[in-house]
Amino acid sequence: MRRQLDHLVRLATERPEQIEVRVLPFSAGAHPAFGGPFEILSFPSPRLPDYIVTFAETRELALGSAESVDLIRRIAKEMT
C-alpha cells in the first residue's frame, strides 16, 4: 500500500495539470457519494440535465489538492 500511496503522490505532483488527487476525509461525514460509485453523464440535449451534481457536491467536501497530497504523504510515512 505504501508504494501505491507514493505513486499517487508522484502522479499528482509531476502532472498536476492532468491529475488531481483529492481526499474525502472521514470528518466530512455523510456525503452525496456515500452510497458507492457513481458515473458522470453528459447529454447533448439541453432537455436532459448532466449528472454532475453528486461529483460537484462531493468535491466541495474533499480536501484541496495540496492538502490531499500532504495527507497521503503523512500516511505513507507512518507505514514505514
Report on this structure.
The longest helix is centred in the C-terminal third of the chain and has 14 residues, at 65-78. This protein folds into 2 domains: 1-23 and 64-80, no CATH class; 26-62, no CATH class. The mean pLDDT is 89. The protein is elongated. The protein is mainly α and 80 residues long. The protein has helices at residues 2-14, 53-61, 65-78. 45% of the residues lie in helices and 0% in strands. The chain is built from 3 helices and no strands.
Helix-strand blueprint:
Blueprint: H1 2-14, H2 53-61, H3 65-78
Helix pairs in contact: 1-3
In a few lines, what is going on in this structure?
It is built from three helices and no strands.
List keywords for this structure.
80 residues, elongated, 2 domains, mainly alpha
Note the gap between the termini: 11 Å
Pattern of helices and strands: HHH
Structural class: mainly alpha
Which stretches of 5+ consecutive residues score pLDDT under 50? none
